[in-house]
Amino acid sequence: MERRVVIIGAGFAGAEVARGLRSAPARAILIDQNNYQLFQPLLYQVATAALSPADIAEPIRRLVRGHPNVEVVLGEVTGISADQRTVILRDGSHIAYDVLVIAAGASPAYFGHDDWAPFAPSLKSIADARNVRSRLLRAFEEAETAGQPAERARLMTFAVVGGGPSGVELAGAIAELARYSLAKDFRQIDPKSARVLLLEKGPRLLSGFPKPLSDYAARKLTGLGVTVETNCTVKRISETAVETDSETMPVAFAIWTAGVKASPVAKMLGAPIDKGGRIKAGSDLSVPGFTDVYALGDAALVLAADGNPLPGLAQVAKQRGQYLGNALTRRFQSRAAPGPFVFHNRGNVAVIGRHAAVIDFGRLRLKGIAAWLLWALIHIYLLAGLQHRLLVAVQWFWHYLTYDRGARMIIEPSAEGREPSC
Questions:
Q1: Where are the domains of the chain?
Q2: Model's pTM, two decimal places?
Q3: H helix runs in 177-241, sequence order
Q4: CB burial class (10 A; 0-12, 13-18, 19+) of residue 304?
Q5: Residue 265: HSE in the Cβ half-sphere, 13 Å Cα cutoff
Q6: Which of 66, 151, 191, 246 is deepest in the core (most CB within 10 A)?
């Protein structure tokens, strides 16, 4: 009998599950509120005008084009009935399942300060990236015509809150945008004098990396003109300033990279969750207390062999998806189940800027230009679709030669349609 596997979320984890079911006697129904899969690790490059949104997004239907047993449903999940084995969509429709896979991703967490969100946007979606890019570019435009030196200085000051890989990459990219790409384009201001503040609550940047790599990243960012402040707790964020435990800093705006929480879909199941909203899943990714329900990706809390939670990285999500797709296929074919999920670390990476990155493979650590080149190759390889790999490779090569960034459009939130590349 053909089984119905409903997969909520078409990100790295969900899409891998669907593709892993290609040879299974099952029908997979892949639900997502967007019709594309987003390569989130490069969102910061959209936010800093290096790439256009279409460069890092692949239509979901194209991803599963060669999998006739996979159906794609565009819709927003608003409820889950485990008793009736149905998923409820916003339009009121119900989708029945035999097996449910929750891979709904994550959203930003402001740790009880959701009122900061309008003044400190995050980077979790294309809309977020376009918003940040427009606000960055508009700040320079407004600084060009500002009459007062203090106001001009504020408009050319940007705060990045959170010193993890996303914060480090974003701070370095903003500094390079100002120092190189915009340097010759203005007459009344010097973009090179722009200030980028990187604020980290902990004692050092990149806390998940070995300290030597963390120290290297801090030195390289400082060399780019980024002001790195550690042991810095943000107390308040407003439209024009960021207040820490030691000072109030006037800024054009802040960008939030300090934390995430699981999608609200995770709570709809009614299973135990942690403080970040993640479903506590077993070593086989099944949800205890629920029959034929699995959780993975950013929606799940899965412990590694050492008892620590696995990080919310793209490589973790992809490996979980591949594991579960294989496990379900073996189950439907009445074959022996695989062992528990084991994460194979392919390296933790953060890029700082031109010729500078850090990669931690565990025993092997890389930094500098070698890490930077490997970072570029890895990210090009991980992009979905040959056309995206070629386009991004060509654009990166052009940016490397010219220091120019082509996607420098200010687009208001209400603007619609695919933006041009110029």
A1: 3-108+260-332, 114-257
A2: 0.91
A3: 211-223
A4: middle
A5: 29
A6: 191
CA dihedral 379→384→385→386, nearest 10 degrees, is: 20
Distance from the Cα of residue 199 to its chain's centroid: 19
Please report the pLDDT score of residue 417 as a whole number: 46
Common-topology check for domains 3-108+260-332 and 114-257: yes
Amino acid at 125: S
169 catalytic per annotation: yes
pLDDT beneath 50: ranges in the chain: 415-418, 420-422
Q: Looking at 345-400, which runs of residues are DSSP E strands?
A: 348-353, 356-360, 365-367
* Residue recorded with tokens 């990285």: 313
Of residues 2, 16, 76, 169, which has the active-site annotation? 169
Half-sphere exposure of residue 271: CA atoms within 13 angstroms, side-chain side: 27
Task: State CA 61 to chain mean position distance.
Answer: 21
Question: Within 13 Å, how many C-alpha atoms sit on residue 356's CB side?
Answer: 20
Location of structure tokens 């208001």:
412
Instruction: Give the per-residue pLDDT at 10.
Output: 96
**Do residues 163 and 198 touch, judged by C-beta distance below 8 A?**
yes
pLDDT, tens digit (0-9, with 9 covering 90-100), for 146-191: 989 999 999 999 999 999 999 999 999 999 999 999 988 999 999 9
Fold classification of 114-257 (topology level): FAD/NAD(P)-binding domain (3.50.50)
- The correct CATH number of 3-108+260-332 out of 1.10.10.10, 3.50.50.60, 3.40.50.1580, 3.40.1190.20 is 3.50.50.60
Residue 413 has a pLDDT of: 61
What pLDDT, in 10s, does the model give residues 76-99?
999 999 999 999 999 999 999 999
Output the pLDDT for position 166.
Answer: 95
What does the DSSP assignment read for 331-355?
HHTT-PPP---------EEEEEETT
Distances (CA, A) of 3 to 6, 21, 328, 419: 10, 11, 10, 41
CA distance 214 to 231: 14
pLDDT at residue 414 in the model: 52
Instruction: Give the position of tokens 């809390």.
Output: 301
